[in-house]
Backbone:
């Protein structure tokens, strides 16, 4: 695989557009992804029991297994909006289908923003009328889906499948209300590979566990979390039909890389964040335990605030491990920024001033060896800052 410059429309047969529909002040706030032909679709959604209207609609789209367009608005989540909110999501679906002469059931609808407000359908309708399939603002799509994000988040890879070049592109948004099992995040992936829907869904569901489900910013799981993958099959002779094939393994590896890259971009752009935190757990008896422990460490408010303050307080890390480890942990080796601070669960001498300086870097790495097995897990998050409190104290919901 190789990373290339591009955008969500880089795979064959895709295009995109973005406009300012006046949902937000001045900024782009309505975007669309279109495929020339109906595409296989796979999706994973929030585990929050309160699901936004578009999530309910998109689950039905994914159940049918085919999609040709995704329309996204930012600023308003269309969550906890009752029957009117569901009707508005369905109207958005119908309006886009009519605009581009698509099957209505092949249109996915996504929203992000403030919970509890109804969509201004007059603005949505006017905005849809202005979207274009030929002369669109393709690069603007990654911006149009943002809320409190500070940067666009996108990545594109090429890989050889069946002797042909396949392109896979991903874009996402997410900054706050981010917590494992999905987050206030939307992620969209397009590819021109040809693949059976059941295989794509299986692949995506597995990849999510070690990527998007391994990030946390603030411990809150959103109502709108959605990851959708469209595969339109327009890369000639590049087809995946067998999950035991080398092509399946290759494509899955690229999909995992894209999801991990996007997940880390979200973690690094956490609301008010100044540092990306990566936690690597090794020596666990099983992968689930390793992942859960890594998430507990990176999600601990005490760990996050210590990292913000460049305080090498390793006791907070050990406490986090003990809270969720389903087995005895009595032989832990702990490193922070490469400095050994604990060996055989016993403190070792280290230069606190030097380590504190290392904790001022943009990326902080914590490595925990549990010495109880051979399984590993990684999680990503960010520090917890004064700015996070300011943003969320003023963010009307």
Residues:
């Amino acid at each position: 695989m190789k990373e290339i410059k591009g955008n969500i429309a880089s795979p064959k047969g895709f295009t995109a557009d973005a406009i300012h529909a006046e949902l937000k002040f001045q900024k782009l706030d309505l975007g669309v992804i279109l495929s020339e032909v109906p595409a296989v679709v796979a999706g994973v959604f929030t585990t929050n029991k309160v699901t936004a209207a578009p999530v309910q609609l998109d689950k039905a789209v994914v159940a049918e297994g085919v999609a040709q367009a995704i329309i996204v608005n930012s600023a308003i989540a269309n969550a906890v909006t009752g029957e009117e909110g569901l009707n508005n999501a369905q109207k958005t679906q119908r309006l886009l289908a009519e605009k581009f002469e698509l099957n209505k059931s092949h249109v996915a609808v996504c929203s992000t923003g403030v919970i509890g407000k109804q969509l201004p359908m007059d603005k949505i309708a006017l905005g849809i009328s202005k979207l274009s399939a030929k002369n669109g603002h393709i690069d603007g799509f990654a911006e149009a889906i943002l809320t409190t994000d500070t940067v666009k988040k996108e990545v594109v890879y090429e890989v050889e499948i069946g002797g042909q070049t396949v392109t896979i592109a991903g874009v996402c948004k997410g900054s706050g209300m981010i917590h494992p099992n999905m987050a206030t995040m939307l992620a969209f992936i397009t590819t021109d590979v040809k693949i059976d829907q059941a295989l794509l869904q299986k692949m995506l569901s597995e990849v999510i566990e070690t990527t998007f489900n391994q990030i946390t910013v603030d411990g809150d799981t959103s109502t709108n979390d959605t990851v959708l993958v469209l595969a339109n099959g327009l890369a000639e002779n590049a087809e995946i039909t067998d999950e035991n094939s080398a092509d399946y393994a290759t494509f899955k590896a690229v999909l995992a890389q894209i999801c991990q890259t996007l997940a880390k971009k979200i973690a690094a752009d956490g609301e008010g964040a100044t540092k990306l935190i990566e936690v690597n757990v090794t020596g666990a008896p099983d992968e689930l335990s390793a992942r859960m422990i890594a998430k507990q460490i990176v999600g601990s408010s005490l760990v996050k605030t210590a990292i913000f303050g460049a305080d090498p307080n390793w006791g907070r890390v050990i406490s986090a491990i003990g809270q969720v480890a389903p087995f005895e942990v009595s032989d832990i080796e702990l490193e922070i920024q490469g400095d050994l601070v604990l060996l055989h669960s016993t403190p070792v001498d280290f230069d606190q001033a030097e380590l504190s300086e290392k904790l001022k870097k943009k990326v902080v790495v914590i490595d925990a060896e549990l010495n109880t097995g051979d399984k590993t897990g990684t999680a990503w998050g960010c520090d917890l800052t004064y700015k996070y409190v300011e943003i969320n104290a003023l963010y009307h919901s």
User: Anything to note?
Assistant: The chain has two domains: 2-265, 276-394. The chain is about 30% helix and 30% strand. The chain has a mean pLDDT of 91.
